[in-house]
């Protein structure tokens, strides 16, 4: 394992989440660097679901940038909102995790196929909700981070484990920061 590549990936990941918490569009640029490098890290670690996830993330970075810049009302900046169909997103995560986990378990030599599949599928849900600036995206990220910390530690990806510990802390902070922003935006809309 190339620890320099892993360390560089972790740095860009930290910067991406930092800017995401602040609702700064630079999060997507740092995110693109992070996910591109992590494709190689996860391939080497035989975490194939994570590698596939990061390939998908490459495209989602562009979608996220566009959505944050032009996805709001009248093509203005997107505001933080709350999701109302949480059971749908939870159910989707469970079903797709089981499907991907089964495929990775039976068709590859993947390490921790179901856990890795969960990280992948829950991350995709979280990422989609984050692209749409949905407050609950942070709750998905918190759960993903806890599972990822355990798996990456077992795979001796220590810089990545440390990054996900930071991600966990940052996701908790992000949730409360976005909650405040959502409440301000809701109060502003009521006054208008």
Counting DSSP H or I runs of 4 or more residues, the number of helices is: 7
Helices and strands, in order, run as HHHHHHH
- The average pLDDT value, as a whole number, equals 91
Rg, rounded, reads: 17 Å
> Which outline best applies?
globular
Largest sheet: none
Helix content: over 70%
**Distance N terminus to C terminus?**
55 Å
The beta-strand count equals: 0
Low-confidence stretches: none
Query: Into how many domains do the coordinates divide?
Result: 1
Structural class: mainly alpha
The proportion of residues in beta strands is under 5%
Tell me what the structure shows.
This protein is mostly helical and about 190 residues long. Helices cover about 80% and strands about 0% of the residues. α6 runs antiparallel to α7. Its main location: membrane.
Features:
cell membrane, 192 residues, globular, transmembrane helix, mainly alpha, 7 helices
Summarize this structure briefly.
The protein is mainly alpha-helical and 192 residues long. It has helices at residues 3-21, 26-44, 48-70, 86-107, 113-131, 137-154, 158-191.
Write the layout of secondary structure elements.
Elements lengths: L2 H19 L4 H19 L3 H23 L15 H22 L5 H19 L5 H18 L3 H34 L1
Helix pairs in contact: 1-2, 1-7, 2-3, 3-5, 4-5, 5-6, 6-7
């Amino acid at each position: 394992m190339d620890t320099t590549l892993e360390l560089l990936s972790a740095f860009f990941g930290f910067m991406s989440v930092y800017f995401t918490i602040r609702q700064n569009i630079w999060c997507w640029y740092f995110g693109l660097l992070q996910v591109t490098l992590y494709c190689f890290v996860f391939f080497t670690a035989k975490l194939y679901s994570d590698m596939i996830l990061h390939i998908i993330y490459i495209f989602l970075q562009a979608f996220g940038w566009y959505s944050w810049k032009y996805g709001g009302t009248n093509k203005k900046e997107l505001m933080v909102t709350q999701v109302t169909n949480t059971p749908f997103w939870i159910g989707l995560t469970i079903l797709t995790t089981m499907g991907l986990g089964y495929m990775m378990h039976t068709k590859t030599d993947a390490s921790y196929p179901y856990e890795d599949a969960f990280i992948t599928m829950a991350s995709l849900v979280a990422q989609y909700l984050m692209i749409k600036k949905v407050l609950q995206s942070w709750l998905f990220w918190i759960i993903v981070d806890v599972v990822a910390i355990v798996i990456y530690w077992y795979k001796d990806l220590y810089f990545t484990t440390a990054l996900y510990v930071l991600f966990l802390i940052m996701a908790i902070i992000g949730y409360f920061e976005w909650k405040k922003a959502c409440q301000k935006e809701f109060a502003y809309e009521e006054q208008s």
